[in-house]
Amino acid sequence: MTLRSVLLxxxxxxxxFLMPVFWFAVSQVSQPDxxxxxxxxxxxxxxxxxxxxxxxxxxxxxxxxVGGLAVPPPVSKTLWYVAWLLDVLALLLGTWLGWPxxxxxxxxGFTSKAYSHDRIRLKKYPVLSWLVVGTCQGGLTYxxxxxxxxxxxxxxxxxxDVGLAALLSTLNILAIYPITQIYQHNDDAKRGDLTLSxxxxxxxxxxxxxxxxxxxxxxxYLYLEGGIAFFWLVGLxxxxxxxxxxxxxxxxxxxxxxxxxxxxxMTALAGLGLNAFFIILTFL
Length: 284
Prior knowledge:
globular; mainly alpha; about 280 residues
């Protein structure tokens, strides 16, 4: 593989769509240590997530579009080694942030590998893989980021506020994740992967996302106590909601509209809206 091919498979830009969980956690720390904030950000978005993407690409060997990559180049064993190298670098840097963060990195790393590895392949189990991805990329990442930045004891993660925020992070991932699988039904079927989106069907995937996201928004109303911050959230997500509904109408008429390009637009709007809100919340 060329260096360019390896970099493409890392899909670093796709980490932008996972970043809202990180900013949400940072926004809830009253006096964040910015050195630790940047360390967590780099480890997550330049090492841990790209390692997971590379490992997934190596075992999937996608020929069609995959999240953040319209035309994936062929893979070789080189990508497997790069994935492990990035994971090791993440662990080495993570030691500066403390053992709880290192434990998180190990759990996330091995879980993401179990998701893709052909001998385990959690991706074959629709509900289990959905819950695992939602929990790891959502609540677990929120809790690990919050603890690493705040340096609070582990017991602080058991408070109602942290618990609700972690749950909301999980719900956001559970809502968006099936949509990111909606254009891959044929490729998943060839590999024998029964993803949640493939199980629900195209229209069922939209309904699932709508229901889970509605629950999430209700949860944010309670978490933000119906204050001005909640209306900032709603305002910044209006473009996402408008696009989702218009796309839903198009797909209802023609399931062929559930394509890669539309999915990436939807994911980008959601990611930008949520990132903008949590960054604003951080500095309010």
